[in-house]
Amino acid sequence: xxxxxxxxxxxxxxxxxxxxxxxxxxxxxxxxxxxxxxxxxxxxxxxxxxxxxxxxxxxxxxxxxxxxxxxxxxxxxxxxxxxxxxxxxxxxxxxxxxxxxxxxxxxxxxxxxxxxxxxxxxxxxxxxxxxxxxxxxxxxxxxxxxxxxxxxxxxxxxxxxxxxxxxxx
Length: 169
Description:
By secondary structure, this protein is α/β, with parallel strands linked by helices. It contains five helices and six strands. Strands 3-2-4-1-5-6 form a six-stranded mixed sheet, with helices on both faces. Helix 2 links the parallel strand 2 and strand 3. The chain is globular and about 45 Å long. It starts with a strand and ends with a helix.
């Protein structure tokens, strides 16, 4: 099974007076524009995503919607609570077990949860020391043998938003 971890795009500043709560921060115009270009790069990669799973937080959901629309897979979009910023790696992996028959899952969420999940999967230790930081709009492919994992995963690649945008140009 291939898990593709994507951090949401650039959101409006937390101090913006139009935003009353962090969970309600939308993508900025720049963030949405860059994400559309990154999504075109993802289309170039030709990954046959079985599902697009997103955090319920607005900026992540908007990011997932842009990607799903660009790839023409809007019907495969689902919110899962395990991708919320306050989620844990254990909650996320437990939530993913119902998708274990799928081959290509795109997970759109937040730091530090995504980095912690990737680190856990690669080291297979709850107290892993691997501190992977995904930049906004980045995409990372990790292959796992099973969920829950029984052995360390394989890191295939990590693409920055800029690299994805160049692929889509």
